[in-house]
Fold this protein.
Amino acid sequence: MKSRYAIAKNVFVDSIDIDDYIELNSSVTVYQQLQNSMEKPLKMILLFGKPGTGKSILLNRIREKLKHQKEIYYFETPAPTEKEFFQKLFKVLTGKDLPKNTEVNFSALIDFCKNLRGKREIVILLDEAQMYEAEIMEKIRLLSDTRSVKFVVSLHKTEDEDLIAKEHFKSRIWEVIELKNASYEDQTTYVHKKLLKKNLFEIANSIKTKEMKLIYKFTQGNYRECNKLMFTIFEICEYYDENEPSKIDYAHIPPKIIEMAALKLGYIHA
Amino acid sequence: MHEIRQLEEEWLKYHRKKRRPWYILSAILFLVLLIVLFVMNNYYIKEDFFSKDVFSQTNLSKENVVLPKMQDKSFALLNGPLKHIDVMEIVHQESAKVTQSTSVSSEISSSDTLVDIPILDDKGNAIEHEKIQDEKKKVHLDIQETTSISAYEDVEKRFMQSQDIDDALFLAKSYYKKGAYKKSEHWALEANRIDPNLEESVLIFVKSKMKQGNKNEALAILKQYIQKNDSEDAKVLLKKIQNDRF
Protein backbone atom coordinates (compact mmCIF):
# COMPACT_ATOMS: atom_id res chain seq x y z
CA MET A 1 0.00 0.00 0.00
CA LYS A 2 1.29 3.39 -0.96
CA SER A 3 2.25 5.62 1.93
CA ARG A 4 -0.02 8.58 2.50
CA TYR A 5 3.09 10.71 2.48
CA ALA A 6 3.86 9.66 -1.08
CA ILE A 7 0.64 11.34 -2.21
CA ALA A 8 1.37 14.39 -0.08
CA LYS A 9 4.86 14.57 -1.51
CA ASN A 10 3.54 14.75 -5.07
CA VAL A 11 1.19 17.57 -4.17
CA PHE A 12 4.24 19.78 -3.84
CA VAL A 13 5.95 18.92 -7.08
CA ASP A 14 6.84 22.33 -8.47
CA SER A 15 4.74 23.00 -11.52
CA ILE A 16 2.85 25.78 -13.25
CA ASP A 17 -0.11 23.54 -13.79
CA ILE A 18 -3.22 25.65 -13.48
CA ASP A 19 -4.87 22.89 -11.49
CA ASP A 20 -2.30 23.48 -8.77
CA TYR A 21 -3.18 27.15 -8.50
CA ILE A 22 -4.22 28.11 -4.99
CA GLU A 23 -6.26 31.20 -4.47
CA LEU A 24 -4.89 33.29 -1.69
CA ASN A 25 -5.81 36.79 -0.60
CA SER A 26 -2.60 38.22 -1.99
CA SER A 27 -2.74 36.28 -5.27
CA VAL A 28 -6.35 37.30 -5.87
CA THR A 29 -5.34 40.94 -5.47
CA VAL A 30 -2.45 40.60 -7.93
CA TYR A 31 -4.62 38.70 -10.35
CA GLN A 32 -7.25 41.43 -10.34
CA GLN A 33 -4.58 44.08 -10.67
CA LEU A 34 -3.16 42.34 -13.74
CA GLN A 35 -6.57 41.81 -15.27
CA ASN A 36 -7.44 45.46 -14.81
CA SER A 37 -4.15 46.52 -16.37
CA MET A 38 -4.84 44.39 -19.38
CA GLU A 39 -8.14 46.12 -19.86
CA LYS A 40 -6.43 49.46 -20.05
CA PRO A 41 -4.91 50.75 -23.32
CA LEU A 42 -1.43 49.91 -22.13
CA LYS A 43 1.38 48.88 -24.39
CA MET A 44 3.42 46.88 -21.95
CA ILE A 45 2.93 45.57 -18.47
CA LEU A 46 5.83 44.54 -16.32
CA LEU A 47 5.27 41.74 -13.89
CA PHE A 48 8.26 41.23 -11.66
CA GLY A 49 9.24 39.56 -8.45
CA LYS A 50 11.76 37.19 -6.94
CA PRO A 51 11.94 33.67 -8.33
CA GLY A 52 9.24 31.50 -6.83
CA THR A 53 6.77 34.28 -6.11
CA GLY A 54 4.22 32.83 -8.55
CA LYS A 55 4.71 34.86 -11.71
CA SER A 56 4.49 31.94 -14.14
CA ILE A 57 1.45 30.38 -12.55
CA LEU A 58 -0.22 33.78 -12.49
CA LEU A 59 0.42 34.21 -16.23
CA ASN A 60 -0.96 30.74 -16.85
CA ARG A 61 -3.95 31.43 -14.71
CA ILE A 62 -4.78 34.65 -16.52
CA ARG A 63 -4.37 32.99 -19.89
CA GLU A 64 -6.69 30.19 -18.82
CA LYS A 65 -9.27 32.61 -17.55
CA LEU A 66 -9.17 35.03 -20.46
CA LYS A 67 -8.49 32.70 -23.35
CA HIS A 68 -12.14 32.74 -24.42
CA GLN A 69 -12.43 36.50 -24.15
CA LYS A 70 -9.12 37.67 -25.60
CA GLU A 71 -6.55 36.58 -28.10
CA ILE A 72 -3.93 35.68 -25.54
CA TYR A 73 -0.70 33.75 -25.95
CA TYR A 74 1.78 32.50 -23.43
CA PHE A 75 5.49 32.29 -24.31
CA GLU A 76 6.74 29.99 -21.61
CA THR A 77 10.46 29.97 -22.32
CA PRO A 78 12.36 32.42 -24.45
CA ALA A 79 13.32 31.21 -27.90
CA PRO A 80 17.04 30.48 -28.14
CA THR A 81 17.56 32.88 -31.03
CA GLU A 82 15.96 36.04 -32.38
CA LYS A 83 15.04 34.22 -35.55
CA GLU A 84 13.14 31.53 -33.70
CA PHE A 85 11.40 34.10 -31.52
CA PHE A 86 10.10 35.97 -34.54
CA GLN A 87 9.09 32.73 -36.25
CA LYS A 88 7.02 31.97 -33.19
CA LEU A 89 5.60 35.48 -33.13
CA PHE A 90 4.85 35.33 -36.84
CA LYS A 91 2.79 32.20 -36.31
CA VAL A 92 0.87 33.81 -33.46
CA LEU A 93 0.12 36.95 -35.44
CA THR A 94 -0.62 35.41 -38.82
CA GLY A 95 -1.72 31.97 -37.80
CA LYS A 96 0.68 30.53 -40.36
CA ASP A 97 4.06 28.86 -40.16
CA LEU A 98 6.93 30.74 -41.70
CA PRO A 99 8.07 29.04 -44.88
CA LYS A 100 11.33 27.11 -44.57
CA ASN A 101 14.57 28.93 -45.25
CA THR A 102 12.91 32.31 -44.78
CA GLU A 103 13.24 34.96 -42.09
CA VAL A 104 10.80 37.46 -40.72
CA ASN A 105 11.21 40.92 -42.09
CA PHE A 106 10.78 43.04 -38.96
CA SER A 107 9.64 46.15 -40.84
CA ALA A 108 7.04 44.09 -42.63
CA LEU A 109 5.95 42.66 -39.28
CA ILE A 110 5.53 46.16 -37.86
CA ASP A 111 3.41 47.15 -40.82
CA PHE A 112 1.37 44.01 -40.41
CA CYS A 113 0.72 44.83 -36.77
CA LYS A 114 -0.21 48.41 -37.59
CA ASN A 115 -2.84 47.06 -39.94
CA LEU A 116 -4.25 44.96 -37.15
CA ARG A 117 -5.02 47.99 -34.96
CA GLY A 118 -8.69 48.16 -34.19
CA LYS A 119 -9.30 44.76 -35.71
CA ARG A 120 -7.63 42.44 -33.26
CA GLU A 121 -6.36 42.89 -29.74
CA ILE A 122 -3.54 40.49 -29.10
CA VAL A 123 -1.97 39.87 -25.68
CA ILE A 124 1.35 38.08 -25.48
CA LEU A 125 2.57 36.87 -22.11
CA LEU A 126 6.37 36.69 -22.07
CA ASP A 127 7.65 34.60 -19.20
CA GLU A 128 11.30 34.65 -18.10
CA ALA A 129 11.81 37.81 -20.09
CA GLN A 130 15.10 38.51 -18.37
CA MET A 131 16.57 35.93 -20.76
CA TYR A 132 15.75 37.98 -23.86
CA GLU A 133 18.52 40.02 -25.31
CA ALA A 134 18.23 43.75 -25.29
CA GLU A 135 17.87 43.86 -29.08
CA ILE A 136 14.85 41.58 -29.01
CA MET A 137 13.39 43.58 -26.17
CA GLU A 138 13.77 46.72 -28.22
CA LYS A 139 11.92 45.10 -31.10
CA ILE A 140 9.22 43.94 -28.72
CA ARG A 141 8.83 47.54 -27.62
CA LEU A 142 8.47 48.67 -31.24
CA LEU A 143 5.82 46.04 -31.80
CA SER A 144 3.93 47.18 -28.72
CA ASP A 145 4.04 50.74 -30.04
CA THR A 146 1.73 49.60 -32.87
CA ARG A 147 -0.92 49.24 -30.11
CA SER A 148 -2.27 46.12 -31.66
CA VAL A 149 -0.06 43.81 -29.62
CA LYS A 150 0.10 44.10 -25.87
CA PHE A 151 2.95 42.47 -24.00
CA VAL A 152 2.96 41.30 -20.40
CA VAL A 153 6.60 40.90 -19.54
CA SER A 154 7.51 38.75 -16.58
CA LEU A 155 10.93 39.33 -15.04
CA HIS A 156 12.89 37.92 -12.14
CA LYS A 157 13.67 40.53 -9.61
CA THR A 158 17.33 40.40 -8.87
CA GLU A 159 19.57 43.41 -8.45
CA ASP A 160 20.68 43.39 -12.10
CA GLU A 161 17.32 42.49 -13.50
CA ASP A 162 15.69 45.08 -11.36
CA LEU A 163 17.99 47.56 -13.03
CA ILE A 164 16.88 46.30 -16.45
CA ALA A 165 13.31 46.66 -15.39
CA LYS A 166 13.89 50.20 -14.26
CA GLU A 167 16.15 51.46 -16.98
CA HIS A 168 14.95 49.63 -20.05
CA PHE A 169 11.25 49.87 -19.41
CA LYS A 170 11.23 53.05 -17.44
CA SER A 171 9.70 55.16 -20.18
CA ARG A 172 7.80 52.41 -21.90
CA ILE A 173 6.07 50.38 -19.25
CA TRP A 174 2.81 51.82 -18.21
CA GLU A 175 2.07 49.46 -15.42
CA VAL A 176 4.36 47.63 -13.04
CA ILE A 177 3.05 44.81 -10.89
CA GLU A 178 5.33 43.37 -8.26
CA LEU A 179 4.83 39.94 -6.75
CA LYS A 180 6.15 39.39 -3.27
CA ASN A 181 6.75 36.40 -1.07
CA ALA A 182 3.77 35.13 0.86
CA SER A 183 3.04 36.22 4.38
CA TYR A 184 3.01 33.57 7.10
CA GLU A 185 -0.79 33.41 6.98
CA ASP A 186 -0.83 33.09 3.19
CA GLN A 187 1.79 30.37 3.24
CA THR A 188 -0.13 28.42 5.88
CA THR A 189 -3.27 28.68 3.78
CA TYR A 190 -1.29 27.68 0.69
CA VAL A 191 0.09 24.50 2.30
CA HIS A 192 -3.20 23.48 3.85
CA LYS A 193 -5.25 24.20 0.73
CA LYS A 194 -2.82 22.24 -1.40
CA LEU A 195 -3.19 19.19 0.82
CA LEU A 196 -6.93 19.52 1.21
CA LYS A 197 -7.29 19.75 -2.54
CA LYS A 198 -6.03 16.15 -2.61
CA ASN A 199 -8.19 15.14 0.37
CA LEU A 200 -5.16 14.82 2.64
CA PHE A 201 -6.97 16.24 5.62
CA GLU A 202 -5.08 14.27 8.29
CA ILE A 203 -1.73 15.32 6.95
CA ALA A 204 -2.84 18.93 6.64
CA ASN A 205 -3.98 18.74 10.24
CA SER A 206 -0.65 17.30 11.33
CA ILE A 207 1.12 20.53 10.35
CA LYS A 208 0.47 22.68 13.38
CA THR A 209 1.35 26.31 13.99
CA LYS A 210 4.77 25.47 15.43
CA GLU A 211 5.74 23.40 12.41
CA MET A 212 4.33 25.97 10.01
CA LYS A 213 6.38 28.72 11.64
CA LEU A 214 9.48 26.61 11.19
CA ILE A 215 8.62 26.02 7.53
CA TYR A 216 8.04 29.74 7.05
CA LYS A 217 11.33 30.52 8.75
CA PHE A 218 13.19 28.38 6.25
CA THR A 219 11.30 29.40 3.11
CA GLN A 220 10.55 33.05 3.92
CA GLY A 221 7.20 32.73 2.18
CA ASN A 222 8.65 31.79 -1.18
CA TYR A 223 6.26 29.42 -2.95
CA ARG A 224 8.91 27.54 -4.88
CA GLU A 225 11.06 27.03 -1.77
CA CYS A 226 7.97 26.04 0.15
CA ASN A 227 7.13 23.42 -2.47
CA LYS A 228 10.67 22.09 -2.35
CA LEU A 229 10.74 21.93 1.42
CA MET A 230 7.30 20.32 1.71
CA PHE A 231 8.25 17.77 -0.93
CA THR A 232 11.43 16.85 0.97
CA ILE A 233 9.61 16.73 4.32
CA PHE A 234 7.08 14.27 2.95
CA GLU A 235 9.82 12.34 1.23
CA ILE A 236 11.50 11.78 4.62
CA CYS A 237 8.15 11.02 6.22
CA GLU A 238 7.46 8.49 3.50
CA TYR A 239 10.76 6.75 4.21
CA TYR A 240 10.08 6.53 7.93
CA ASP A 241 6.50 5.48 7.35
CA GLU A 242 7.62 2.59 5.21
CA ASN A 243 10.84 1.61 6.99
CA GLU A 244 10.90 2.91 10.57
CA PRO A 245 7.35 3.78 11.62
CA SER A 246 8.42 4.20 15.27
CA LYS A 247 10.31 7.34 14.30
CA ILE A 248 7.30 9.17 12.96
CA ASP A 249 4.49 10.85 14.79
CA TYR A 250 1.33 10.88 12.71
CA ALA A 251 -0.28 13.51 14.92
CA HIS A 252 2.21 16.14 13.93
CA ILE A 253 5.25 16.48 11.72
CA PRO A 254 8.25 16.47 14.07
CA PRO A 255 10.52 19.55 13.87
CA LYS A 256 13.39 17.13 13.48
CA ILE A 257 12.07 16.05 10.07
CA ILE A 258 11.53 19.65 8.98
CA GLU A 259 15.10 20.46 10.00
CA MET A 260 16.41 17.37 8.22
CA ALA A 261 14.65 18.53 5.05
CA ALA A 262 16.10 22.02 5.51
CA LEU A 263 19.55 20.49 5.90
CA LYS A 264 19.08 18.52 2.72
CA LEU A 265 18.05 21.63 0.80
CA GLY A 266 20.87 23.69 2.27
CA TYR A 267 18.75 26.18 4.20
CA ILE A 268 20.72 25.31 7.30
CA HIS A 269 24.06 23.69 7.85
CA ALA A 270 25.38 21.25 10.44
CA MET B 1 15.84 8.26 0.31
CA HIS B 2 19.12 6.45 0.64
CA GLU B 3 20.87 9.34 2.39
CA ILE B 4 18.57 9.26 5.42
CA ARG B 5 21.34 8.08 7.80
CA GLN B 6 23.62 10.85 6.63
CA LEU B 7 20.80 13.33 7.11
CA GLU B 8 20.18 12.05 10.62
CA GLU B 9 23.84 12.47 11.50
CA GLU B 10 23.85 15.96 10.04
CA TRP B 11 20.74 16.78 12.01
CA LEU B 12 22.41 15.61 15.24
CA LYS B 13 25.36 17.89 14.52
CA TYR B 14 23.03 20.75 13.71
CA HIS B 15 21.02 20.13 16.87
CA ARG B 16 24.16 20.22 19.02
CA LYS B 17 25.32 23.38 17.26
CA LYS B 18 21.93 25.00 17.79
CA ARG B 19 22.01 24.24 21.50
CA ARG B 20 25.62 25.28 22.01
CA PRO B 21 24.82 28.94 22.84
CA TRP B 22 22.37 27.77 25.49
CA TYR B 23 24.97 25.47 27.03
CA ILE B 24 27.50 28.32 27.04
CA LEU B 25 24.94 30.72 28.51
CA SER B 26 24.02 28.20 31.21
CA ALA B 27 27.70 27.65 32.06
CA ILE B 28 28.31 31.41 32.25
CA LEU B 29 25.29 31.89 34.48
CA PHE B 30 26.44 29.06 36.72
CA LEU B 31 29.91 30.57 36.98
CA VAL B 32 28.50 34.01 37.73
CA LEU B 33 26.32 32.48 40.42
CA LEU B 34 29.31 30.72 41.94
CA ILE B 35 31.36 33.93 41.91
CA VAL B 36 28.51 35.88 43.50
CA LEU B 37 28.13 33.25 46.21
CA PHE B 38 31.88 33.23 46.80
CA VAL B 39 32.08 37.03 47.01
CA MET B 40 29.07 37.21 49.31
CA ASN B 41 30.53 34.51 51.54
CA ASN B 42 33.86 36.35 51.77
CA TYR B 43 32.08 39.60 52.48
CA TYR B 44 30.19 38.15 55.43
CA ILE B 45 33.32 36.46 56.80
CA LYS B 46 35.20 39.77 56.65
CA GLU B 47 32.31 41.62 58.20
CA ASP B 48 32.22 39.09 61.02
CA PHE B 49 35.99 39.33 61.50
CA PHE B 50 36.01 43.10 61.68
CA SER B 51 33.11 43.17 64.05
CA LYS B 52 35.19 41.03 66.47
CA ASP B 53 38.50 42.67 65.73
CA VAL B 54 37.28 46.11 66.61
CA PHE B 55 37.26 45.24 70.32
CA SER B 56 40.95 44.56 70.40
CA GLN B 57 42.16 47.20 67.95
CA THR B 58 40.13 50.30 68.62
CA ASN B 59 41.10 52.95 71.13
CA LEU B 60 37.52 53.70 71.94
CA SER B 61 36.33 53.44 75.46
CA LYS B 62 34.85 50.16 76.64
CA GLU B 63 31.35 51.57 76.85
CA ASN B 64 31.51 52.84 73.27
CA VAL B 65 32.93 49.69 71.77
CA VAL B 66 30.76 47.05 73.33
CA LEU B 67 27.41 46.72 71.67
CA PRO B 68 24.38 47.26 73.85
CA LYS B 69 23.61 43.57 73.98
CA MET B 70 27.22 42.69 74.74
CA GLN B 71 27.34 45.16 77.60
CA ASP B 72 24.78 43.11 79.37
CA LYS B 73 26.59 39.97 80.42
CA SER B 74 23.37 38.17 81.05
CA PHE B 75 22.72 38.00 77.35
CA ALA B 76 25.75 35.82 76.79
CA LEU B 77 25.47 33.86 79.96
CA LEU B 78 21.89 32.81 79.64
CA ASN B 79 22.35 30.88 76.41
CA GLY B 80 22.60 27.36 77.75
CA PRO B 81 24.98 25.63 80.12
CA LEU B 82 28.62 26.62 79.99
CA LYS B 83 31.17 24.01 79.05
CA HIS B 84 34.14 26.26 78.60
CA ILE B 85 34.48 29.86 79.60
CA ASP B 86 36.99 32.41 78.46
CA VAL B 87 37.19 35.51 80.56
CA MET B 88 38.32 38.56 78.65
CA GLU B 89 40.12 40.95 80.92
CA ILE B 90 40.25 44.50 79.64
CA VAL B 91 42.75 46.79 81.26
CA HIS B 92 42.93 50.47 80.54
CA GLN B 93 46.43 51.78 80.23
CA GLU B 94 46.36 55.52 79.59
CA SER B 95 44.55 55.77 76.26
CA ALA B 96 45.41 52.28 75.00
CA LYS B 97 43.38 49.26 75.81
CA VAL B 98 45.05 45.98 76.52
CA THR B 99 43.06 42.82 76.53
CA GLN B 100 44.23 39.74 78.28
CA SER B 101 42.41 36.49 78.05
CA THR B 102 42.31 33.87 80.70
CA SER B 103 40.67 30.53 80.34
CA VAL B 104 38.90 28.45 82.82
CA SER B 105 37.88 24.93 82.08
CA SER B 106 35.56 22.87 84.08
CA GLU B 107 35.68 19.86 81.82
CA ILE B 108 38.95 18.61 83.26
CA SER B 109 38.49 15.87 85.72
CA SER B 110 40.29 16.23 89.01
CA SER B 111 41.50 12.68 88.79
CA ASP B 112 43.34 13.39 85.53
CA THR B 113 45.38 16.47 86.41
CA LEU B 114 46.22 18.67 89.28
CA VAL B 115 45.13 22.16 88.46
CA ASP B 116 45.59 25.36 90.33
CA ILE B 117 42.97 27.88 89.58
CA PRO B 118 44.12 31.00 87.75
CA ILE B 119 43.25 33.24 90.63
CA LEU B 120 46.08 31.85 92.74
CA ASP B 121 49.18 33.85 93.38
CA ASP B 122 51.16 32.04 90.76
CA LYS B 123 48.87 33.46 88.12
CA GLY B 124 51.29 33.33 85.22
CA ASN B 125 52.03 29.63 85.68
CA ALA B 126 48.41 28.80 86.03
CA ILE B 127 47.52 30.48 82.78
CA GLU B 128 50.35 28.74 81.00
CA HIS B 129 49.29 25.40 82.43
CA GLU B 130 45.71 25.81 81.40
CA LYS B 131 46.60 26.99 77.93
CA ILE B 132 48.44 23.72 77.33
CA GLN B 133 45.44 21.77 78.50
CA ASP B 134 43.07 23.77 76.40
CA GLU B 135 45.00 23.47 73.19
CA LYS B 136 42.62 20.87 71.89
CA LYS B 137 39.60 22.58 73.31
CA LYS B 138 38.36 25.48 71.25
CA VAL B 139 36.76 28.49 72.80
CA HIS B 140 33.04 28.09 72.96
CA LEU B 141 32.14 31.37 74.47
CA ASP B 142 33.99 34.60 75.12
CA ILE B 143 32.85 36.62 78.08
CA GLN B 144 34.07 40.10 78.77
CA GLU B 145 34.54 40.86 82.38
CA THR B 146 32.04 43.25 83.69
CA THR B 147 31.26 44.79 86.97
CA SER B 148 27.62 44.20 86.38
CA ILE B 149 26.28 42.32 89.37
CA SER B 150 23.24 41.32 87.41
CA ALA B 151 25.41 39.10 85.20
CA TYR B 152 26.45 36.99 88.20
CA GLU B 153 22.92 37.01 89.48
CA ASP B 154 21.76 35.64 86.18
CA VAL B 155 24.26 32.81 86.38
CA GLU B 156 23.16 32.13 89.93
CA LYS B 157 19.52 31.97 88.80
CA ARG B 158 20.44 29.68 86.00
CA PHE B 159 22.36 27.46 88.37
CA MET B 160 19.26 27.13 90.51
CA GLN B 161 17.49 25.65 87.54
CA SER B 162 20.26 23.69 85.88
CA GLN B 163 22.49 22.72 88.83
CA ASP B 164 25.35 22.94 86.38
CA ILE B 165 28.72 22.43 88.08
CA ASP B 166 30.42 24.71 85.54
CA ASP B 167 28.20 27.57 86.61
CA ALA B 168 28.98 26.98 90.28
CA LEU B 169 32.71 26.75 89.65
CA PHE B 170 32.60 29.86 87.47
CA LEU B 171 30.92 31.80 90.23
CA ALA B 172 33.33 30.49 92.85
CA LYS B 173 36.35 31.54 90.81
CA SER B 174 34.90 34.87 89.77
CA TYR B 175 33.85 35.86 93.28
CA TYR B 176 37.21 34.80 94.66
CA LYS B 177 38.94 36.93 92.09
CA LYS B 178 36.71 39.86 92.92
CA GLY B 179 37.51 39.41 96.61
CA ALA B 180 34.04 38.27 97.56
CA TYR B 181 35.39 35.39 99.60
CA LYS B 182 32.21 34.58 101.42
CA LYS B 183 30.44 34.11 98.13
CA SER B 184 33.34 32.20 96.57
CA GLU B 185 33.29 29.87 99.59
CA HIS B 186 29.58 29.32 99.09
CA TRP B 187 29.86 28.54 95.38
CA ALA B 188 32.93 26.31 95.90
CA LEU B 189 30.83 24.37 98.36
CA GLU B 190 27.98 24.15 95.83
CA ALA B 191 30.38 22.85 93.19
CA ASN B 192 31.78 20.34 95.66
CA ARG B 193 28.29 19.22 96.59
CA ILE B 194 27.63 18.31 92.96
CA ASP B 195 31.01 16.69 92.43
CA PRO B 196 32.92 15.92 95.67
CA ASN B 197 35.98 14.84 93.67
CA LEU B 198 36.38 18.18 91.91
CA GLU B 199 39.67 19.41 93.29
CA GLU B 200 39.24 22.99 92.07
CA SER B 201 36.20 23.45 94.27
CA VAL B 202 38.11 22.20 97.34
CA LEU B 203 41.08 24.46 96.67
CA ILE B 204 38.90 27.55 96.15
CA PHE B 205 37.00 26.66 99.31
CA VAL B 206 40.24 26.38 101.32
CA LYS B 207 41.63 29.63 99.85
CA SER B 208 38.38 31.45 100.55
CA LYS B 209 38.53 30.26 104.16
CA MET B 210 42.12 31.46 104.37
CA LYS B 211 41.24 34.88 102.99
CA GLN B 212 38.52 35.18 105.61
CA GLY B 213 41.08 34.39 108.31
CA ASN B 214 39.96 30.90 109.07
CA LYS B 215 43.40 29.35 108.77
CA ASN B 216 42.82 26.41 111.13
CA GLU B 217 39.63 25.43 109.44
CA ALA B 218 41.30 25.76 106.05
CA LEU B 219 44.23 23.60 107.12
CA ALA B 220 41.96 20.96 108.57
CA ILE B 221 39.96 20.68 105.38
CA LEU B 222 43.06 20.66 103.21
CA LYS B 223 44.81 17.99 105.23
CA GLN B 224 41.72 15.85 105.21
CA TYR B 225 41.56 16.23 101.42
CA ILE B 226 45.26 15.35 101.02
CA GLN B 227 44.82 12.25 103.08
CA LYS B 228 41.98 11.17 100.93
CA ASN B 229 43.31 12.14 97.51
CA ASP B 230 47.06 12.63 97.84
CA SER B 231 46.92 15.63 95.58
CA GLU B 232 50.20 17.37 94.67
CA ASP B 233 48.54 20.74 94.13
CA ALA B 234 46.83 20.45 97.47
CA LYS B 235 50.18 19.63 99.08
CA VAL B 236 51.77 22.69 97.45
CA LEU B 237 48.96 24.85 98.78
CA LEU B 238 49.30 23.26 102.24
CA LYS B 239 53.02 24.00 102.25
CA LYS B 240 52.39 27.62 101.31
CA ILE B 241 49.85 28.04 104.08
CA GLN B 242 52.08 26.39 106.64
CA ASN B 243 55.01 28.60 105.67
CA ASP B 244 52.79 31.70 105.79
CA ARG B 245 53.45 32.39 102.14
CA PHE B 246 49.80 32.41 101.20
Observations:
- Residues 52-123, 141-146 of chain B have pLDDT under 50 and may be disordered.
- The beta strands of chain B are 84-93, 96-105, 142-144.
